[in-house]
Design goal:
By secondary structure, this protein is α+β, with helices and mostly antiparallel strands. Helices cover 43% and strands 22% of the residues. The chain is elongated.
Length: 571
C-alpha cells in the first residue's frame, strides 16, 4: 500500500509541477524572486565602476599616494600646501560663488536721522540673544536659533538713518500675523524696515500703511531667508543687505558658524498725508526687528547696503585617490574648508549587514511569503476556479495522498524558484569583491557557512509558509483574508507573549539568520524591536519547530480535505 501511495504522490507531483511553473497567474512570483537579485547586480556594477574610477584617478596622480598621505590633509591648508603634499590634483573643478560681503554692515551707535518706530507693543518673538546664553523659547525661527546681540548690537545707523532693536534675551522681534502697529503721527516720505524671512524665502507679501484719513498705501514685498546658504539672499526686488553677521546663536549656547543676514526695505509713502498705523503681512515666517520713518527727500534715498554687498569668492574642488580610497577637498578662497575620504571598495562587514537586511525584511517577509501564498493557496483553490478539482476527487486516490502530493509539488516549486534566486544573490554579492577578499570571506570569515544558512532558511520558509497557505486555500474561499491575517501575525510577532511567538514561522527563521542587524543609538524603538530577536532559540530547536508547526498544520488539513465538497456554482 505504501508503494502505491508513493507512486500516486509522484504522479501528482509531475502533474502539478508543470502547472505550477508555467501558470500565467504565477508570473509575478518570478518577479518577486528576481528583485533582490537585480538589486545586488546593480550594487555590484556600481562597486565595479567605483573601483575603476578610483584606479583611473590614482593612475593620473602626479605622486603615488598612500592612505596616510590622504589623511595628512588638514582643514585650513592652502592650495599650495595641498599640492606640495599630494601633487597636482588629477581632477580639479573651479567656480566662483557670489556670497554676501562680511565687511558690509551698518554702523553701530546712535545719532542717525529719522523717527524710530516703537515696536514693543507688538513684540512676540525672542529673536536676539547674547552669546553663550541658553534658551528654550524657540528663538527667531521657532527651532532654537536667534541673532547674536553681540554682533547686531542695540542700535544701527544705515546711510544716516537710525534703527533701534529690542532688548536681548527678551521679546524683541515681531513675527508677522497681520497685526496693525501704531506709527508716530506725522508726514513722512518713507518707511524703512529691517526684517528677514525664516524657513526659506517668503514671496509676495502685502504691507499696508494706513493714514489718518483712512486711506492706505499698499506694498508687495518678498523676503529672503536670513541664512546666506539660502537661494540668492538679499536679492529680492526692493531688498538689500543691511547687516551681515558671521554666525547666529543656538539654544544650547553654541554658535552656527556661517553668515546670517538682516535685510533692509524702503517703502515710499504719501508725504502729504499723516501716517497712523502699519499692517504687516499675515505670515509668521516674516520677522521684523526694527522700523524707522524718514523725511529725507526721495532724491537722496540710497540703498542700505550699496554695490559692494556681494563678492565673488573663488571655490575649487580637488579629487585624489590611492586606488582604494578617494579624497575630495573643497577649497574656498584658496584654503581647505571641506575634507571627505570615501573608500571605493565596499566594506565587507557593512555589505554583509545590508545583505542580511534585504534577506530578512524583503526576501523572507515579502518575496517568499507572497510567493508561497500564490503557489500553495492555488493548489486547491486554483483547481476550484478552473473547475478541474473533481478530476482528482473522482480518481482512485486517497485525498490525504492527493494533499501530500500537491504540497510536495508546491514545496519543490517554491524551493527551486527561491533557493535558486538566493544562490544567485550570494554569487553576485561575493563576486563584487576582489579574489583575495572573496576567499577571505568564504573560507576564513564563515562566508560558506552563512551562504548555506541562507539557503536552508529559504527552504524552511517555503516549508512553513507553504503549509499555512495550503490549509488556507482549502478552508477559505477568499484567500485575501487569511493571507492578511497571517501577514499581520508574522509582523506583530516581536510584540507577542513568549508562548504565542512560537506559533509563528518568522520566529524560528529569525533565530536561524547568521548575521545580526545592529540597532544604532537613536533607532526608533519599534524598528529596533523588529530588527532584534531578544529570545532566539538554538538552530536544532528552530528547525524542529518549523517542521513540527508545518506537520501540525498539514495534519489538521488532512481532516479538512476528507470533508471537502465541490460546488462550482457557488464560486
Amino acid at each position: 500500500m505504501t508503494e502505491l501511495w508513493w507512486a500516486q504522490i509522484k504522479s501528482v507531483i509531475r502533474l502539478e509541477m508543470k502547472k505550477t511553473f508555467f501558470a500565467r497567474r504565477g508570473l509575478w512570483i518570478y518577479i518577486l524572486a528576481l528583485l533582490p537579485l537585480l538589486l545586488f547586480i546593480a550594487h555590484a556594477a556600481i562597486a565595479s565602476r567605483e573601483r575603476e574610477r578610483s584606479s583611473h584617478i590614482a593612475s593620473q596622480s602626479e605622486k603615488k599616494l598612500t592612505y596616510q598621505d590622504l589623511l595628512a590633509v588638514r582643514s585650513g591648508m592652502t592650495s599650495q600646501e595641498v599640492i606640495a603634499l599630494l601633487g597636482k590634483p588629477p581632477i580639479r573643478f573651479r567656480w566662483n560663488q557670489r556670497t554676501p560681503n562680511l565687511a558690509i554692515s551698518a554702523a553701530t551707535g546712535t545719532g542717525g536721522s529719522g523717527t524710530p518706530v516703537n515696536l514693543s507693543s507688538a513684540y512676540n518673538l525672542n529673536g536676539i540673544y547674547t552669546d553663550t546664553t541658553t534658551f528654550t523659547t524657540g528663538g527667531l525661527d521657532g527651532e532654537g536659533f536667534a541673532y547674536s546681540s553681540n554682533l547686531l548690537t542695540a542700535n544701527r545707523i544705515l546711510n544716516g538713518v537710525q534703527f533701534n532693536f529690542g532688548p536681548a534675551n527678551q521679546l524683541d522681534a515681531v513675527s508677522s500675523t497681520g497685526q496693525p502697529i501704531g506709527l508716530p503721527s506725522g508726514q513722512f516720505t518713507a518707511l524703512q524696515l529691517l526684517a528677514t524671512a525664516a524657513h526659506g524665502p517668503v514671496l509676495s507679501q502685502t504691507i499696508t500703511v494706513t493714514y489718518t484719513d483712512s486711506s492706505t498705501s499698499t506694498f508687495t514685498q518678498s523676503f529672503s531667508d536670513w541664512c546666506s546658504c539660502s537661494t540668492n539672499p538679499g536679492q529680492q526686488p526692493g531688498e538689500s543687505l543691511a547687516v551681515v553677521m558671521p554666525y547666529r546663536d543656538l539654544s544650547d549656547g553654541t554658535q552656527d558658524g556661517q553668515p546670517f543676514n538682516l535685510y533692509g526695505y524702503t517703502f515710499v509713502l504719501n508725504s502729504a498725508k499723516t501716517v497712523q498705523s502699519l499692517t504687516l503681512p499675515n505670515n509668521q515666517d516674516v520677522v521684523v526687528l526694527a522700523a524707522t520713518l524718514t523725511k529725507q527727500s526721495l532724491g537722496t534715498q540710497v540703498s542700505l547696503s550699496g554695490p559692494g554687498s556681494f563678492v565673488n569668492v573663488p571655490h575649487e574642488r580637488y579629487h585624489y585617490s590611492d586606488g582604494v580610497n578617494d579624497l575630495t577637498l573643497d577649497l574656498s578662497d584658496g584654503r581647505v574648508e571641506g575634507i571627505e575620504i570615501r573608500t571605493a571598495v565596499y566594506s565587507l562587514g557593512e555589505d554583509s549587514i545590508v545583505f542580511a537586511g534585504v534577506f530578512q525584511f524583503f526576501y523572507l517577509r515579502l518575496a517568499i511569503f507572497f510567493g508561497c501564498l500564490g503557489i500553495f493557496m492555488n493548489l486547491f483553490r486554483g483547481e476550484i476556479l478552473d473547475k478541474s478539482l473533481h478530476f482528482y476527487f473522482l480518481a482512485p486516490i486517497r485525498r490525504e495522498v492527493l494533499m501530500v502530493g500537491k504540497f510536495l509539488a508546491g514545496l519543490l516549486a517554491t524551493c527551486v524558484i527561491f533557493v535558486t534566486s538566493e544562490l544567485l544573490q550570494i554569487v553576485v554579492f561575493t563576486w563584487q569583491f576582489s579574489p583575495n577578499t572573496r576567499d577571505l570571506y568564504l573560507y576564513h570569515n564563515h562566508g560558506l557557512a552563512q551562504a548555506a544558512a541562507y539557503l536552508g532558511i529559504t527552504a524552511l520558509a517555503c516549508l512553513g509558509y507553504g503549509a499555512f497557505f495550503l490549509a488556507a486555500g482549502m478552508l477559505f474561499r477568499n484567500p485575501i483574508l487569511p493571507a492578511a491575517a497571517i501577514l499581520v501575525w508574522e509582523a506583530v510577532n516581536p510584540f507577542l507573549p513568549a508562548l504565542l511567538k512560537k506559533f509563528s514561522v518568522i520566529y524560528y527563521l529569525k533565530s536561524l539568520c547568521p548575521v545580526d542587524i545592529p540597532s544604532p543609538r537613536g533607532t526608533p524603538p519599534l524598528l529596533a524591536l523588529l530588527v532584534s530577536n531578544p529570545d532566539p532559540v538554538s538552530a536544532p530547536v528552530a528547525i524542529l519547530g518549523i517542521v513540527i508547526v508545518a506537520l501540525l498544520v498539514l495534519y489538521v488539513s488532512s481532516f479538512q480535505v476528507r470533508r471537502m465538497e465541490i460546488n462550482y456554482t457557488s464560486e
